[in-house]
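Dock 3-methyl-2-oxobutanoic acid; give full complex structure.
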Amino acid sequence: MTQLSPAQKSVPKTLYGGTSSRRITVRDIAAAKERGEKWPMLTAYDAMTASVFDEAGIPVLLVGDSMGNCHLGYETTVPVTMDEIAILAAAVVRGTKRTLVVGDLPFGAYQEGPVQALRNATRLVKEAGVGAVKLEGGERSADQVELLVSSGIPVMAHVGLTPQSVNAFGGYPVQGRGEEAAQQLLRDAKAVQDAGAFAVVLEAVPAELAAEVTRSLHIPTVGIGAGLDCDAQVLVWTDMAGMTAGRVPKFVKQYLQLRELLGGAAKAFAEDVIGGTFPAEEHTFH
Ligand code: KIV
């Protein structure tokens, strides 16, 4: 019988729910595309929540600049800084064992050019310990992707609706509608693939166009508001768990009403304190 080496034994058979004890790498992601395996990705911004998702078998966690709206109280992702991403990405890495942690490069951290991108991406790899970085843009960011990848930093790209450009877009409109816009989106996705990206997020793109992009690329597409045919799907965790206040985008499915549950727990605690029933005997030292 052929003996498997420890490294061979730990090769994950599937990205989601696999039992390998080592961290998922970009090579595992490429193998999943070859197998035609779909995979889930969530955002995470702290060690405790990240550990829940890691234990649940989520293979890729994105420390997204969506932390701006979802964690830090900003209105958009634009104000998020490298320091904020670096601190929270380090926490997510500490909270996880198996998941591939991807750190987002925030607005202003790579637009100056490839050298600035390399400096900031290197910081996330060295200080936070992320296994890959993400940046927004297709053709316009291809030079940045190329230098990072040739320097040994895996890159997830992000095309379609790129929220860091909210001021230029004048909001968050669906992208790639109409022949010209669709052709540009295809060129953007191909440009980042050719530059060496290991995956590309397609955000707010018509499902038919996302399916065409997915068929024409050899790297996986990660859809958010891009239909069923992408190789992977990502949601912002606070949207997915019903923690976000107010209206959520059409593409969000809420799997829990966490905001309501947490608020209910806080009210129950407050009522116990006011009514003098907490702490009870079992919570008391003598
Ligand atoms: O910052 C983020 O969370 C993202 C995802 C929505 C893809 O970019």
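Observed: The longest strand covers residues 155-160.
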